[in-house]
Write a structure and sequence with these properties.
The chain has 466 residues and is mainly alpha-helical. It is built from 20 helices and no strands. The radius of gyration is 21 Å and the shape is globular.
């Protein structure tokens, strides 16, 4: 690859890392935010929950918007939104304002993520697999080291610093992107040619509204359920209303010519459904530990934010160390062996959580984190390879966007699981219960990966062949 391509990758990489970085840094800040706003653990968890709901909705929307307005324009606009939200979030005086600005931040980072992969695919044709691997290291690395960075920043400068730290990354990405991302071809930005009605039909506004209101209604009512199992009549009615809206969403998407989420495409490809379901479960497992362990360390073990971030670094380092090796292994053996090993490691790590006690040596926690870190390094590369093996060439952009949405659904479910299991406050018994649930999910993944490993078609085509 030439120097311009490398700078293009760096500019895009600095942008796409903002989403996982901002979602992961806040994990260390949850206990302090709970104390600062004097709120229940379930309520404070919305600081995580709202970010992923915003990302899950904005990701495919912005992918479609880039077809109308152009990829370069959406990428740069997203960076401007992230800059403004990061500057304003620490100034919020109330928890409600903080949630609103976090949603704005998630939309901005999703604009960048939604088109980042497409920019790399369109503009780098030589050694494309290597380029995508480098981009993957930006995203997985940011998610992995986020708790450490967050812990250090909070320890030294307080909670506001985890938002201000975005500013230099956004600035660098914007300046590099302005110089290195080529202008879109005329066919990639067709907004000036469309009437308002055509623009609305292309972006599928009714589908987005049904999806958004239905999802938020269902998840909000589930999250409000306490660990005691008490559910009010309002929770039931609101949850059922959300389900009805989601049913109407599915009906609408199957009938409309340009759907927000092309459900018909998934219906024709069981392999795509399987890959996305597996990826959702993988992220449910990973992020339950990712968000649960910092609270365990701080609230049960009384470990400081700085030392919590330092311990969480073992997850990030092990993930980053295994990623290059995973790429070479998957190139030669296909994705399924790596998926099997990853599922086994997640099962071992989940069982280990159940066996922990408040006095367990810290080395045992490091080993749990290392198991999940190695698993994460393997599974990210393996699942992306499996996605490309099952994706029709002409739909690779659509399927990549939905693949990212599956990640967000997994993280949403992880926040939901933690909120339901923990109830009003984080507890050690709840943490162990979460470990039992995760062990069961991980075992299901082991069975699925072993069953599918007997099917040889997964690795017939390399990414470059596409």
């Amino acid at each position: 690859m030439n120097a311009r391509n490398w700078w293009l990758m760096i500019s895009v990489g600095l942008g796409v890392m903002l989403n996982p970085l901002n979602s992961s840094m806040v994990a260390v800040a949850i206990p302090r935010l709970q104390q600062a706003f004097k709120l229940e653990f379930t309520v404070v968890s919305w600081i995580i929950f709202s970010f992923y709901i915003g990302s899950a909705i904005a990701q495919p929307v912005m992918g479609r918007a880039s077809d109308i307005f152009g990829r370069r324009r959406i990428f740069l606009a997203g960076l401007v939104i992230v800059f403004a939200a990061s500057l304003l979030t620490p100034l919020s005086s109330g928890f409600g304002g903080l949630i609103v600005l976090r949603v704005v931040q998630s939309v901005g980072t999703s604009m960048v993520v939604a088109v980042g992969m497409a920019i790399i695919r369109v503009n780098i044709t030589d050694k494309q697999a290597s380029a995508l691997s480098v981009l993957s290291m930006f995203t997985s690395g940011a998610a992995a080291v986020g708790p450490f960075v967050g812990g250090v920043l909070i320890h030294v400068w307080g909670c506001s610093s985890i938002f201000y730290i975005n500013l230099p990354f956004v600035t660098a990405s914007f300046l590099l992107a302005w110089r290195t991302i080529p202008q879109d071809k005329p066919s990639a930005a067709i907004a000036p040619k469309l009437s308002l009605r055509e623009w609305i039909s292309r972006i599928d506004v009714p589908g987005i509204l049904l999806f958004t209101t239905g999802l938020v209604a269902v998840l909000a009512q589930l999250l409000s359920a306490k660990s005691s199992g008490h559910v009010s009549l309002f929770n039931i009615i609101a949850g059922l209303a959300g389900l009805i809206l989601l049913i109407f969403f599915v009906r609408h998407e199957l009938r409309t010519a340009m759907p927000f989420i092309p459900l018909r495409t998934f219906g024709k490809s069981p392999g795509l459904i399987r890959v996305n379901v597996e990826f959702m479960l993988v992220n449910l497992l990973f992020y339950s530990v990712f968000f649960g362990l910092p609270s365990y360390l701080q609230l049960v073990r009384q470990v400081s934010e700085f030392h919590t971030g330092l311990l969480m670094l073992s997850l990030g380092l092990s993930s980053l160390a295994v990623s290059p090796l995973a790429g070479r292994w998957i190139d030669s053996s296909g994705p399924r062996p790596a998926q099997s090993v990853s599922a086994i490691l997640m099962t071992i790590g989940s069982v280990w959580i159940v066996l922990l006690n408040p006095a367990s040596p810290l080395i045992s926690i490091i080993l749990v984190l290392a198991a999940f870190g190695i698993s994460n390094g393997l599974i990210n590369v393996a699942m992306q390879a499996a996605l490309f093996n099952h994706s029709p060439k002409e739909l690779i952009g659509v399927t990549s966007g939905l693949f990212s949405t599956s990640r967000y659904f997994g993280t949403i479910l992880s926040s939901l699981l933690i909120g339901i299991v923990m109830g009003n406050s984080f507890s050690f018994k709840g943490f162990q219960m979460m470990g039992m649930i995760l062990a069961g999910i991980a075992l299901c993944l082991v069975i699925m990966s072993r069953w599918q490993s007997n099917k040889p078609k997964d690795s017939r085509h390399s990414l470059d062949d596409r």
